[in-house]
Specification:
This is tRNA(Met) cytidine acetyltransferase TmcA. InterPro entries: Acyl_CoA_acyltransferase, GNAT_dom, P-loop_NTPase, TcmA/NAT10_helicase, TmcA/NAT10/Kre33, TmcA/NAT10_N, TmcA_C_sf, tRNA_acetyltr_TmcA. One of its GO terms (cellular component) is cytoplasm. Catalyzes the formation of N(4)-acetylcytidine (ac(4)C) at the wobble position of tRNA(Met), by using acetyl-CoA as an acetyl donor and ATP (or GTP). The protein has 758 residues and is of the alpha/beta class. It folds into 4 domains: 174 residues, Rossmann fold (3-Layer(aba) Sandwich), CATH 3.40.50; 189 residues, P-loop containing nucleotide triphosphate hydrolases (Rossmann fold, 3-Layer(aba) Sandwich), CATH 3.40.50; 236 residues, Gcn5-related N-acetyltransferase (GNAT) (Aminopeptidase, 3-Layer(aba) Sandwich), CATH 3.40.630.30; 104 residues, no CATH class. The chain is built from 29 helices and 22 strands. It has an 8-stranded mixed β-sheet with strand order 10-11-12-9-13-14-8-15, with helices on both faces. The termini are far apart.
């Protein structure tokens, strides 16, 4: 069979079934590129319907480098050519596959298939981290790629080669035709706008839907027209979720509603705004169009649609009519909960995505949503927009990248306790050889973390610096930890890091060295807990702490420290503190997506680890007071309290740090006519002592008062409002109660001062 005949048959079957087909051109790069040109030219597809994803330049077809493959998300092409020979990644594979339309072809250029496990060097570079060299990187993912390409339906394989002459005669051998010979032709189910008479949305909104599934979603979103409703819209990638949300937003704005849209980034909402703008224009009510500089639409009916980041959106939620959160699984649960202050709210999220996945939304937020005052309506989109359901290329991609990985079902995890579980090392070979085990482990990680990407699967299977440990209950994984070896770097690399060079895979030593100016920080060896995940059916039952303790017992005698870095919340800070980890750093900037500041924590295992931890805890305690009055002045008081408490006690006696004159000033505020304003420096020292040592018996609100007013310098009025005092004067009087609590530590000097006012 010739290449032209193969392409003709594949393309015809893809069009007849509204599915996609994948063509692998295996051989050297030049032969693959020549064959890709022949593939395109043997079809009747216009050049604007073709995209090449390659590092090579000079093509007459539109081209993107692999680093910008995500620009194809939300677009469609009839042919996408992916050159895997250079800068290939699992993420890129997912992104480009999603851009191929029903009836189209994905053309993949690879080395000879039997050579792939020893090639695709970009995959090696992505997971090779110092002090390991490239030879330590595994090839299990590459073996997996070859296995799925050669066994899955809908995939054709042709070996291509050239004779090496300047004329470069192309030779093609078809190894597998990829034809699945389906008996049934498939097409999208067309929506019927006339059946949608039970919603306030205009008929044109339903006419714009591409499937009946999408029209059904828009009808459900119409509930947002009335206050007190929450709609959850879930779908795999490519089901038209964001477009449905855009049609709903446009319909609401056309009716004069104020619609606030939020997502991890504005780019996530591009399809939503495009659909909304088009609908408003069709309705003749568009007043102001959207652009990336000012993402908002306004209407002649006094409606509007505007975008804000999640932290910004929480502050506005109660002031608008409707909030629509797109890619909600990528927004922290605390922020999602704050969005419930809106009269009506929609949460739209991707379940199985090419650049991250959203199963954790179900686990972490659904219970909180059910407890809210909103009437909750949930809908899931199943029918693909761009191709028929059951598309073999989609199922191949899900299988290869584990996009649909799930943890064990709840019944298998139920009853797991720290006493019932067994501790187990999971090697990469075991994971690669046991598909069910791999899917269980990866499924737990997916549910626990909103940004688990295909490249994380590559790391799990092949990264030389990772260790995987798990707890099993009746043979099923119920908790898993992924630990990354860091540090142990030679003097030259430590010096380069100190001078600003970034060193891959050494996050904690990098921050301690480059930002905190400790050139010796990368010499001790440690393990950073990259991920820890416990099955949602047995969460908060002590399994996470059990797993960390077992890891400490195992690694404590062979490394200097265990560490972690994460977006700080009061709950997480308390969890890590209770497991022996101490705060050594808080980032000065908040994550744009979550609004959280990163916390770095260490748990020493050796004398060298203890010295590293102690000096960085001391340096953190020295600088944090100034930071909190400046660049961290808006940091949540609960985070401040937990982060500082997690530094550990210094064992000092607070009474000995104040002289008699200073105790008299403190007692004067507590018992006499003294005021906080006369001695703010003393109260700052008292506040820091309280946050570090819990020196006095203070309530939670009193400690938060110390943080907001004394440490962060917030005005009395806003402190009183934030802490729910009846008045500003009552808030100010509370400082006297705080002074009295501290005066209990002052001894005879305070006793004498108190008696003067009794």
């Amino acid at each position: 069979m010739t290449l032209a005949a193969l392409v003709g048959d594949l393309h015809a079957e893809a069009r007849r079934t509204n599915e996609r087909r994948l063509l692998v051109l295996a051989g050297n790069r030049e032969a693959g590129i020549d064959a890709a040109y022949s593939t395109i030219e043997s079809t009747d597809i216009d050049s604007e319907e073709v995209s090449l994803v390659t590092t090579r330049e000079g093509f007459r077809y539109p081209r993107l480098p692999p680093s910008k493959a995500d620009e194809l998300l939300g677009t469609t092409r009839e042919i996408v050519v992916l050159d895997c020979h250079e800068d290939f990644s699992a993420n890129t594979l997912g992104q480009v596959t999603g851009a191929v339309d029903g009836g189209g072809l994905l053309v993949v250029l690879t080395p000879p298939l039997d050579e792939i496990p020893d090639q695709l060097d970009a995959l090696v570079d992505q997971v090779a981290v110092p002090p390991f060299d490239r030879s330590a990187v595994g090839n299990r993912f590459r073996q997996r790629l070859v296995e799925t390409l050669t066994t899955h339906p809908g995939i054709a394989i042709a070996t291509v080669e050239t004779d090496g002459t300047p004329e470069a005669s192309l030779s093609v051998t078809v190894e597998r035709d990829g034809l699945s010979h389906p008996a049934i032709e498939q097409s999208r189910s067309a929506p019927n706008p006339s059946t949608r008479t039970d919603t306030p949305f205009p008929t044109v909104a339903f006419e714009a839907c591409l499937t009946a599934d999408q029209a059904r979603a828009v009808a459900h979103l119409a509930a947002l027209s009335e206050p007190g409703h929450a709609v959850v819209l879930e779908a795999d990638r490519g089901r038209g979720k964001s477009s449905a949300a855009g049609l709903a937003a446009g319909s609401l704005a056309a009716a004069g509603r104020d619609v606030l849209v939020t997502a991890p980034a504005f780019d996530n909402t591009a399809a939503l705004f495009t659909r909304a703008e088009r609908l408003l224009d069709q309705l003749g009510v568009l007043s102001t169009a959207a652009n990336t500089a000012q993402p908002r639409l306004s209407t002649t009916t006094d409606g509007r649609i505007r975008f804000r980041t999640p932290p910004e959106a929480t502050a506005l939620a109660s002031e608008v009519d409707i909030v629509i959160a797109d890619e909600a699984a990528a927004i922290p649960v605390d922020l999602l909960e704050d969005l419930l202050a809106a009269p009506s709210v929609a949460f739209c999220t991707t379940v199985h995505g090419y650049e991250g996945t959203g199963r954790g939304f179900d686990v972490r937020f659904r219970d909180r949503l059910a407890e809210s005052e909103h009437t909750v309506d949930a809908i899931e989109l199943h029918e693909p927009i761009r191709y028929a359901r059951g598309d073999p290329v989609e199922s191949w991609l899900f299988r290869t990248l584990l996009l649909d990985a799930q943890p064990p079902v709840d019944q298998l995890a139920a009853g797991a306790t720290p006493e019932s579980v067994s501790y187990r090392q999971l090697t990469a070979d075991e994971l690669a050889d046991d598909e069910q085990l791999l899917r269980s482990v990866f499924g737990l990680l997916v549910v626990a973390h909103y940004r688990t990407e295909p490249t994380d699967l590559v790391r799990l299977l092949d990264a030389p610096n990772l260790q995987i440990r798990a707890l099993e209950h009746d043979g099923h994984v119920v908790s898993v930890a992924v630990l990354a070896r860091e540090g142990g770097l030679d003097a030259d690399l430590r010096a380069a890091m100190y001078e600003g060079q970034r060193v891959r895979g050494n996050m904690l030593p990098d921050v301690l060295t480059s930002q905190l100016r400790d050139e010796a920080a990368a010499e001790p060896v440690g393990y950073r807990v990259m991920r820890i995940a416990t099955h949602h059916a047995v969460r908060s039952g002590g399994l996470g702490s059990q797993l960390l303790d077992r890891c400490y017992e195992e690694f404590g005698e062979t490394v200097d420290w265990l560490g972690v870095g994460y977006g700080a919340t009061p709950q997480l800070l308390d969890f890590w503190r209770s497991n022996g980890y101490r705060t050594v750093h808080l980032s000065i900037t908040a994550n744009d997506r979550s609004g959280e500041h990163s916390a770095l924590m260490l748990r020493p295992c050796s004398a060298a680890g203890q010295a590293l931890t102690d000096r960085h805890v001391d340096w953190f305690r020295d600088r944090i007071g100034t930071m909190l009055s400046d660049m961290l002045s808006d940091l949540d008081a609960a985070v401040v309290r937990e982060a500082l408490a997690a530094t550990g006690s210094s064992g000092g006696d607070i009474a000995e740090t104040f002289d008699d004159r200073e105790w008299q000033l403190i007692a004067g505020v507590g018992y006499g006519p003294g005021t906080y304003e006369a001695a703010p420096h003393l109260f700052h020292r008292l506040a820091m002592a309280q946050l570090f040592e819990s020196a006095a018996d203070l309530s939670d609100r009193q400690e938060r008062l110390l943080v907001r007013k004394v440490v962060q310098g917030e005005p009395w009025e806003s402190v009183a409002s934030d802490l729910d005092f009846a008045s500003t004067s009552q808030c100010m009087r509370e400082m006297g109660a705080i002074a009295r609590a501290f005066s209990e530590l002052g001894g005879d000097v305070v006793d004498a001062e108190r008696k003067r006012y009794e």
